[in-house]
# Entry
Amino acid sequence: MTDFIFGHYVYWSIIALLIIGLYGMIFKNNLAKKLIGMTIFQVSIIMFYVASAVKWSATVPVLDPVTGVVDAAKYISPLQHCLMLTAIVVGVATSGVAFSLAIVIYRHYKTLDESVLMERMKSS
Amino acid sequence: MLHNSPALVPLLLLSTAISIPVLAIKKAKVAYPLAMAASLLSVVISCYNVFRVWGNGPLTYHFGGWFPPIGIEYVLDPLSSFIAVVVNVVAFFVLWHSSGIQGREIPGKSVPYYALTLLFLCGANGIIVTGDLFNLYVFLEIFSLSMYGLIGIGEKQAPVAAFRYLIMGTIGASFYLLGLGFLYIVTGSLNMADVRNILPLVYGNPAVAAALSFMVIGMGIKMAIFPLHGWLPDAYTYAPSTSSALIAPIGTKVAAYVIIRVLFFVFGVKFVSQSLPITDLIAWLAAIGILYGSVLAMAQKELKRMLAYSSIAQIGYIGLGIGLANPLGYIGAVLHILNHAFMKGTLFLVAANLRKRFGHSDISRFDASYRKKLPWSMAAFTLAALSMIGLPPTAGFFSKWYLALGAIDKGNWVFLAVILISSLLNAVYFFRILEKVYLAPPPAPAAGENLSPDGEKRKGSLIGEEEYSLMMPVVILSFSLLLIGLWNANIVKEVIQRIIPLGM
# Structure
């Protein structure tokens, strides 16, 4: 049991981050805070991938003449990191679009608070 | 050239999307012809691909010469080539129509509009054609980000709707990515065909079930399946008409395609329908969504919002067909992807025409003069509405017919009842409009109208409507509903029966 808790502490912290991010996206009233939640959420998934690539007593995936080609187990799988580079880029693009939308919303309604926003949308 | 054809359409659209802002920097007018040319070429190439796939079997393209499962593979099999044609054809008609409408709805924004549209189509085509699960995620984000932009350039409320959709859509895409992470940890591969071969060895692993659940929930948000549809009504209503005519037929269908692909072609029919009750869950949620969408559509006073709620119901039909997980239901679902793309395209384009001509699309203000002022648009609307209700010989009847047969085949009478009841509800909310436009006596001509008798022709109004570019796409799309309906036996026999997944 203790092994289940402490042995997977990386995954528990990732789950905690995931839930914090989801909570921020869904329950926070301020649009900027929603975006903070969104970033935390995306980062937790990036960490999940990277954590899955962890391998003890292995080296970077660059061909080492000492280790040789034959023993693939001695190298860390680089694929997760490559995938997450793409995912980080996607995340940055998403944040960019989200912030520009938030700026447009602020220009129109002079608020980022969702409940105030709802009232102003109805009254206009 | 020819062996590259799977990759050709996404790359063509991507390069045009990037070059439009550069080439149109001095003259904004070149954006439209460039976009039209790219769209027309993609229609031609995807039609050509369909015939090649039928003749010679699936086409593949390996990026950078790396063979799968290491490299990224593009696969055109009968299913993906069929969906690609549907998407590209509908997009072509919407783009054609946009030339007359975007000047009014999004003045001065034609360059970003066309660039985003092509980016959106590039994402859609990429999702359809890719054989790599992570590549699918990247295209999904290209597709979604341009969709947020297309929604956000609309009315004053549009950025709020786009923002809400962005939050929901990011949750959806991230869930897909999370599920993919589980799948990758278990199978060690990202190539769809490779994962399909490895998965039977690890079906017992709970991570596979987690992967499937996350991926289906994520794509369910994008597809707006009940109860994950919250973003849809506002987004469709406040987006510019020309964007909603593009997003409504294509956006949710592509997500439905991903669900079909992931469920039946990656995880396998047996696993998703027997080991986990996930298809049953989808079917029941879809059935609730059908009724919910239809009932709420009846309550709407604004045409675009009504069509948005009706979209939730129609997506429910596709979900129901997927959830039945038997050949007849599957035929119904794929046929409904085709039919709904054409029907919703027509209806949203007519809504755009109404907004352009009368400045509103408020159902309570519709009157009998519309049938005189917009005779062709209203005729197209009627045809599409009849197809939505499901009157033979329009296309909508046949997809519902196959869905009903699938429900009977499964022995589930509740689903059959849902299909029948929702057809009645469809009839209620469409006949409400048709009654106002066609059955009411023509209104007494107002004082101003007496001065311009009906015989007087405005510029280019030979057939009653002002602009060909606004009328022709609508008429052709709605007329093709009849053709699809009449030829549905051929479509099912020649096309859809070939794409029934193994083991169904």
In short: Chain A touches chain B at residues 18, 22, 25, 31, 34, 38, 41-42, 45, 48-49, 52, 80, 83, 86-87, 90, 93-94, 97-98, 101-102, 104-105, 108-109, 117, 121, 124 (CB under 8 Å). The domain at 2-123 of chain A is CATH 1.10.287.3510 (Helix Hairpins). Chain A has one domain: 2-123. The helical segments of chain A are 2-6, 9-27, 31-52, 79-109, 114-123.
